[in-house]
Design brief:
Strand content of chain A: under 5%
Radius of gyration of chain B: 25 Å
Structural class of chain B: alpha+beta
CATH superfamily of chain A: MetI-like
CATH class of the largest domain in chain B: Alpha Beta
CATH superfamily of the largest domain in chain B: P-loop containing nucleotide triphosphate hydrolases
Number of strands of chain B: 20
Order of helices and strands of chain B: EEEHEEEHHHEHEHEEHHEEEEEEEEEE
Oligomer: heterodimer
Strand content of chain B: 25-35%
Order of helices and strands of chain A: HHHHHHHHHHH
CATH topology of chain A: MetI-like fold
Number of helices of chain A: 11
Shape of chain A: globular
Largest sheet of chain B: 6 strands, mixed
Largest interface: A-B, 24 and 33 residues
Number of domains of chain B: 2
Strand order of the largest sheet of chain B: 6-7-8-3-9-10
Distance between the termini of chain B: 20 Å
Shape of chain B: elongated
Radius of gyration of chain A: 23 Å
Helix content of chain A: over 70%
Number of domains of chain A: 1
Distance between the termini of chain A: 36 Å
Chain lengths: ~270, ~375
């Protein structure tokens, strides 16, 4: 048994407090009876009920989800294609430049990405709104998908593709029946990552959005500037709940799969 | 010299000038940038032959196999299969199948779907696919494992799935890339014989790439020994072993002792070589090198006798030395004999009886000797 030293306990308490105290406060005050955010006046769920009647917030949530779904899906397709090109054609001219350019948006300040997008849309006379927002999200999430998928492809055994072709599968059939199913988990995590990034983006959205296309983070931010209401706390609590649930499910599923795999392997070698 | 044909069965289409090769590799060169993997190589492989490409890694054997499968295109030259040029034909349209070294099983499919994959690509009716898959599973004795995924199988079972999958389409030629490389020694030996039986039963042409000479010797009808992208010798296993055509082949296959010297006489089917070890070798040889030329004499350890007494043939084909090392292997004993000039000779003798009175020991003076037809003359 490991012994808990005082130092270890202190580290853990401080570390977790640092990470979670703000969130815990937010969750607690979302159940506050009082309208005043920092004064506790008893338990209530009225802000959650009120939320259902706040059309502006609901609209913003709907925009966010739609932008997230479309941009994550398109970014996944483009990012996977880029990752394939990068791992498969290792010797074309300018490959280093190309790969550098794919990864640049990862470290590019969002303000710059957002501003340059804005300039582009203005220059080509594209009215800002839902589609400019979606395009911008595709652009900045695509590189994340490319990174995730590429790391999977690096450990991908190319000989199974050769085996498929050897058995008569055309290159397209090989991709659809062999490559894609094998890399599917990475493609899916790329999609989830893109979706999450799109959900909580504020900076790029602020630059590229237009009338009628306000996302939830934008709405929350603009409301908070007028003062924090318990309603906002309620929205955030729901968001936290959804994200926590997602993480929980993902880790349980992968843990189970791992246990199953180990069992299978033991069974195979027991023969 | 006596003919050293195939001893396994009377099957020798390569010796018959009328037989038509099934696979003809014609002056094929493959370059990767500046590196020449396969260098102006020509080969004929006959129907129903079990053909082995043997060589160290990087000798071009795998590249040649990949060109047969269609994963690489020759830089020049052409490959003809069953009278048809394979130039420009993609892998998925070639009537050959390959068994990969890593097995390359589809990890997301069950065993039966792995085997059915190629049949589905051909649009075979479902009932026929099921019947064929069933037959293949029985052939490799995996009928109980049809619903398993590859990661639920042991190494040997995976190897069988890979074999069943590559045979399911009944290819004209089966290419095998180090088919037994990943198995342990015992399983490998069993599987060698199973592969040979299978090839006989199905009447297919097998081309196997291997770096394991025992594997090649056991399984193949003919072996092509490769080095630096070229074929050094193509012959049956006994010919390769007993009549290597070069120093490289003699050295590469099995253990060998090579004596260097100059030809002192040649004629009447025998050659005499004055060796640098101070004795003269007389050897039966069909080819007669010029007198005075440099030549080598290669003799295998099991063809050398070790004894205390001066043999009758001395000083021809016999020389004195002292026992330097003794390796007892159970079935045989290997002696390392150090000659006067410092050269160490390997000689092995079969332990035909359980115990010998007064066995040969360390540091003893001994004579080594061999017969006139025990070795071969190497001309290079």
């Amino acid at each position: 048994m490991q012994r808990w030293s005082r130092f270890n306990i202190a580290s853990i308490v401080i570390g977790f407090a640092f990470l979670y105290l703000p969130i815990v406060l937010l969750v607690i005050f979302s159940f506050n009876e009082s309208k005043l955010v920092t004064v506790w006046a008893g338990f209530s769920t009225k802000w959650y009920v009120q939320l259902l009647h706040n059309q502006a917030l609901l609209d913003a949530a709907w925009v966010t989800v739609r932008v997230g779904l479309i941009s994550a899906t398109v970014a996944t397709v483009l990012g996977t294609m880029a990752a394939l090109a990068m791992t498969r054609y290792t010797r074309f001219r300018g490959r280093m430049l190309f790969s550098g350019m794919i990864y640049a948006p990862l470290v590019m300040p969002e303000v710059i990405t957002g501003l340059s997008m804005l300039l582009l849309f203005v220059a080509i006379g594209f009215d800002r709104g839902f589609w400019t927002l979606t395009l911008a999200h595709i652009t900045f999430t695509m590189c994340f998908v490319a990174v995730v998928v590429q790391s999977r492809l690096l450990s991908f055994d190319r000989s199974i593709e050769e085996a498929a072709m050897d058995l008569g599968a055309t290159p397209v059939a090989t991709f659809l029946q062999v490559t894609l199913p094998v890399i599917a988990p990475a493609v899916f995590s790329g999609w989830v990552l893109a979706f999450t990034l799109s959900l909580d983006d504020l900076v790029i959205s602020s630059f590229t959005s237009g009338p009628g296309a306000t996302t939830l983070p934008m709405r929350i931010y603009s409301q908070v500037r007028l003062g924090v209401t318990p309603e906002i706390n309620a929205v955030c609590t729901i968001l936290i709940g959804i994200v926590a649930m997602g993480v929980l499910i993902a880790s349980v599923v992968s843990r189970r799969r791992e246990i199953q795999r180990v069992k299978d392997e033991q069974a195979a070698f027991a023969h | 010299m006596k003919s050293l044909g195939s001893i396994r069965r009377s099957f020798a289409p390569w010796a018959d000038p009328k037989s038509v090769p099934f696979i003809a590799v014609k002056n094929v060169t493959k370059k990767f940038g500046d590196f020449t993997a396969v260098d102006d190589l020509s080969l004929n492989i006959y129907p129903r032959e079990f053909f082995a490409l043997l060589g160290a890694s990087g000798c071009g054997k795998s590249t040649l196999l990949r060109m047969l499968a269609g994963f690489e295109q020759p830089t020049s030259g052409e490959i003809i299969l069953d009278g048809q040029s394979l130039a420009g034909i993609p892998p998925y349209k070639r009537p050959v199948n390959m068994m990969f070294q890593s097995y390359a099983l589809f990890p997301h499919m069950t065993v039966e779907n792995n085997i059915a994959f190629g049949l589905k690509q051909d649009g075979m009716p479902k009932a026929d696919i099921a019947a064929r898959v069933d037959q293949m599973l029985k052939l490799v004795k995996l009928d109980k494992f049809a619903k398993r995924k590859p990661h639920q199988l042991s190494g040997g079972q995976r190897q069988r799935v890979a074999l069943a999958r590559s045979l399911a389409k009944r290819p004209k030629v089966l290419l095998l890339d180090e088919p037994l490389g990943a198995l342990d020694k015992k399983l490998r030996e069993e599987t060698q014989f199973e592969l040979m039986d299978l090839q006989q039963e199905l009447g297919l042409t097998f081309v196997v790439v291997t770096h394991d000479q025992e594997e090649a010797m056991t399984m193949a009808d003919r072996i092509a020994v490769m080095a630096h992208g070229k074929v050094v010798q193509v012959a049956t296993p006994p010919e390769i072993y007993e009549a290597p055509n070069s120093r490289f082949v003699a050295d590469f296959i099995g253990d060998v002792n090579i004596f260097d010297g100059t030809v002192s006489s040649a004629g009447n089917g025998t050659v005499e070589i004055a060796t640098q070890s101070g004795f003269t070798v007389r050897v039966a040889s069909a080819e007669l090198p010029a007198v005075g030329a440099n030549a080598g004499f290669a003799v295998r350890p099991e063809k050398i006798r070790v004894g205390r007494d001066r043999p009758a043939c001395a000083p021809l084909n016999a020389v004195q030395g002292e026992i330097w090392d003794i390796g007892y292997l159970g079935d045989m004993t290997v002696f390392h004999v150090k000659l006067k000039d410092g050269k160490v000779i390997k000689a092995s003798s079969l332990n035909a009886v359980r115990a010998v009175e007064d066995p040969i020991g360390y540091d003893q003076e001994v004579w080594i000797s061999f017969d006139e037809n025990a070795g071969v003359v190497l001309k290079d």
